[in-house]
Amino acid sequence: TKQFQSLMKNSVSIITIVDNMGNYIHASDSAAKLIGLPAEELIGKNFLKVLPEKNEEFMNAIATINKTKKPLIKKEIYTVHNQERIYESIVFPIEFHEDEVVLLGSIANDITDKIKYENQIKNERDYIYRIFNAMNQYVIVTGLDYRIQFMNEKAIKDFGDMKGEVCYKQLDRTSPCGGCRLHEFKHMTENETITYTVTAFNRVLEINASRIENLDDSISIVEVIDDITDKEEKQRQIEYMNLHNHLTGLYNRRFFEEELKRLDVDRNLPLSIITIDVNGVTCSRHLRSGGFSFE
Q1: DSSP for residue 172
Q2: Could you read off the pLDDT of 31-59 as tens digits, one per residue?
Q3: CA 39 to chain centre
Q4: Residue 44 region, left (φ>0) first, then alpha (ψ -120 to 50), else beta?
Q5: Reading across the β-sheet that carries 219-227, which strands appear in turn?
Q6: Strand, helix or coil at 215?
């Protein structure tokens, strides 16, 4: 038909139809160009004579299809302009006779550049993972299913190698953390980062998480985790000291002023204040210096 002829003439894919003896029945112009013959000259020629180096592959393909009765996907290498190119092809049965395939079709595409690009991305990711391994923080990469895809060396040392396990298991939990925001990444962009904290093993962990998209269009989450327990404790101590007298442990003037600001709003009115005076404090301060008046 005209549609079939147009397809064979204009398709960038390598399309061929051969019988079980290897004789070409149809071939696209791109297939003829790859082989190095005009399409009209290729028809009727034998595949095994045109490409004798592919003899074993052809016979194996027929044997496999006869056995499985299913299409066969494989990779092949062809030399084009003195350069090796990798083609991914699907070979499929078109017609059977007495349970033996007698007509086969093949569609192949050049995937050399695709493989080169994928390897480049993989190498870049391996380089990033090496950086992760040099970091003092825990670095964990998970999928949206919570399963761990990568752990840096520090995380493996402290939690064990748990790749393939759900991430919350390393925190000694049986379900996702209460503050976990992993589900939000499904609808976020690659440049956004979420920061949140979780508590595990009586430690406070700060998680900075961001989204990355993989070659297969799946989504992974990179989590950089800091143990901020000591930092949080020091912050609490600073806050306590700012609001308490260091000798008596009682609330100081700053606390009173902050509380007064908090209470001095319309909804708390009317407001009453009770003051207490201790006799002799002023004399003690004058006689023994200000520091002793707090004792």
Answers
A1: T
A2: 999 888 888 888 999 988 888 888 888 88
A3: 46
A4: left
A5: 148-151, 138-143, 219-227, 203-213, 193-200
A6: coil
Q: Bin 22: left if φ > 0, else alpha if -120 < ψ < 50, else beta.
A: left
**Cα angle: 26, vertex 29, 31; to 5 degrees:** 75
CB 263 within 8 A of CB 271: yes
Please count the CA atoms within 13 angstroms of the CA of 279 that sit on its side-chain side.
0
Sign of CA dihedral 46, 49, 52, 55: positive
Q: Hey, CA dihedral for 170, 175, 179, 181, is it positive or negative?
A: positive
Range 38-41 contact pairs with CB under 8 angstroms and sequence separation of 24 or more: 39/8
CB of 38 closer than 8 Å to CB of 77: no
Q: Which of 15, 29, 23 is closest to 43 using CA atoms?
A: 23
Residue 254 sits at the vertex; the CA angle it makes with 249 and 256, to the nearest 5 degrees, is 85
Cα–Cα distances (Å) from 270 to 132, 210, 256, 276, in that order, read: 59, 50, 18, 20
Q: How many C-beta atoms lie closer than 10 Å to residue 233's C-beta?
A: 11
Q: What is the pLDDT of residues 155-207, one digit of tens each?
A: 999 888 999 999 888 777 788 877 777 778 777 776 778 888 888 777 888 98
CB 103 within 8 A of CB 94: yes
Which tokens belong to 241?
Answer: 């000291």
